[in-house]
Specification:
23% helix, alpha+beta, OB fold (Dihydrolipoamide Acetyltransferase, E2P), 110 residues, 6-stranded mixed β-sheet
């Protein structure tokens, strides 16, 4: 009877150790990246942004994506995307809609 109790305790300790290792692996800090450019499209769960240097990046968006201000960006609007990598895909955690750049400095009137 004691032998079975020892085996059960050892199995419980082994299972607890395994669970702690899995939890530690999943709790690693996320590394965030930034990308800035103009929105080319927002379709279903994908945001396409063309950067200033001509590169295009695709981001997965969903219910956890935060939009600042709290609305979806329109095509042609400038955005700054904060994203992280998950399973080889760019996942947008925050999309900030940037104000349009001022076109020319105001002229002085005489």
């Amino acid at each position: 009877m004691r032998r079975f109790l020892r085996i059960e305790v050892m199995l419980l300790l082994l299972a607890a150790t395994l669970l702690m290792m899995v939890a530690a692996e999943n709790s690693e800090a996320q590394q965030y990246f930034f990308f800035q450019g103009k929105v080319e499209s927002l379709y279903r769960e994908q945001l396409t942004v063309k950067g200033d240097k001509g590169e295009t990046m695709y981001f997965a968006v969903g219910r956890r994506t935060v939009y600042i201000p709290s609305r979806l960006p329109g095509v042609g609007e400038r955005v700054k995307v904060t994203y992280y990598l998950r399973r080889g895909h760019n996942v947008a955690s925050q999309v900030e809609i940037l104000p349009p750049p001022s076109s020319a400095p105001p002229s002085k009137k005489k």
